[in-house]
Amino acid sequence: MKKLNKTTRLLFLAFAFAIGFGTKAFSQEPQWKLSLEKGVEWTKHTPNKILLVGSSDWGLHGVDAATGKLLWSNEDLYNSAKALKGPDGKKVGYTADLIRVLEDNEDPRVSDYAIVKYTDNILVKNFVVINIRTGELVLDPRSAGMPVVKIIGPEQATFNYDGSDYLPELKSIIITASWEDLTQKGAPFMQKTKLYNIESGGLAWESDEVSSKFLPVITPDNNLLFIGEKTAAKINAKTGQPMWKFEVAEKKNNFEAFDANIHLTEGYFYQKKGNQGVVSAVSLSDGKVIWEKPLASKDAPVLTAENFGVIVADEKNFTLMEAETGNTKWTAKKLSGIVVDLGKDYGIAVGEKDKYLTVLDKNTGEEKWSQKIKGIRIDQLTGAGIMYMDEEGSVGLFGFDGKPVWDGKDMIKGPVLRAKPSLDQEIFYSDEKVYHVNLATGQKKVIINKVEFNEKETPDNLEFTGSNFVLSSSQNMMGFDANGNVLYQDHWASPKISLAGRIAMRTMQVAMVAMASAAAYQQGLTQGSAFAPSSISKQYGTQREFFEDMSGAFGQVANQRFKATKHRGVYSFILTDVGEGVGLVKVDKISGKEVGKIVLNDKEPVFDSDPENGMIFYKPSKKDVFGYTF
To answer: Rounded to two decimals, what is the model's pTM?
Structure first.
């Protein structure tokens, strides 16, 4: 087997040589260069022309995107992210998803701030607000004075993860926490909430009377609705003072379920009270209890609030309690799933266990109709009925009366791409066809009968630019209007390895076939021979399999094409041969015309882009970022 190992090393040297042969060529000089000693993991361009760069030591860096000047570095923002694990128990990689840059179309200054927020829902969680121009730490739980606790794992300041975030209507950051104070006798339940102005960073108000499990809701009169574990309250957004509070009947218990109607006039709470459960209806304008009804349920029910009442679904029943009195209007057979009010007298739709779509009469609870479809889920309500998807991602439409408008073989076959230019129309791509659907009438028609892309590519992106629709894949783009008129269609060939490399690969492939044949011949000679042990025959068999595998691998590499296209803003950046070597062409999505090109001589470039002016930020090595304008 030593001979085999030696051969393997030689083959891989030849393989590496062939790949690299011919790739040394001219590439354009960047506008700027940035190098980080610890290495570059990812980049993220922000609306305010700051390039955020994550480094391999879990540091975060701010760079002026126009000049490449390093503005700041912070090594402490992601400390606990190193310990993040996914549902499979494996460590989560360092991605740009960990940071969210704030946006406000009416105030660009808001995009000077970003939120670092992540959790593994067990031990690790973090919440940090930073100024991405200066790198300044604006807020985190510790600096906000939240209590520091340690139960398991590292010591950390506590906060309610889902209740703490940015409130765009108030241009403020809210941070809220609830906990049991184990340092005090009896471990009393504690609450703390603080509101900070995003621009000044100053504290607007704080309260120890309320906290929220979810991000507080902005009420119609521009105040805040808090739903906590033990306290619900309406808070004056300017002062932090409670306008009303509704608390659990017994301090040892919590609110276990809640929902509010769409107009935020009434909220419904479920809690344990004594030996039974109770559903309470509360006026969200003044906090007064409208009614309270007992509920015999072992587990917390699912509450779905509508204007006509609240649907209570527990382990046995599916019940409607009237909005005015709480009296049970009807009880239907056991149902479970997402509840959707269809409006008017169309009924209440329930998607059951991904098998049925059942519609009940909202006045009687009686079944109006039911359809059984594998994997069914409600996609959207249209003027013509209920649009749904099945387990294959195909799209169909039922009328409100349960009769199919288009289903079965007439469905838009999944998987689909879609773009919605207005509330009453939607464009779908499916199975080489482009469809226009009128959402008001349910009319569906094919506007492009056959889409064919070069290199046998299948479209993977459909978008509306504001002027036209663009259907694209890695190397193909097609622009069209709402009537299906094709405005342009073009193809940019994906680069392959160099001609010299392909010749070398084919030569190696032929050699591998010859070696596999020779090994097979020797295996045949030694098989069953009284003069050769069976282990020798097995060794020849192993060699034959190895050479066959290598032959296939060399063939695949010889045919390999490289793709690295990105669609950002009004431009697409497509990897192709740009004349002087491999690089990117910048294509205007509206006209379909090339408006720039750049030579990188990198067949697998890693890059980010500015979606407005088309500048790209290219990572040529583990430690570098180059900025190009073209």
So the answer is: 0.80
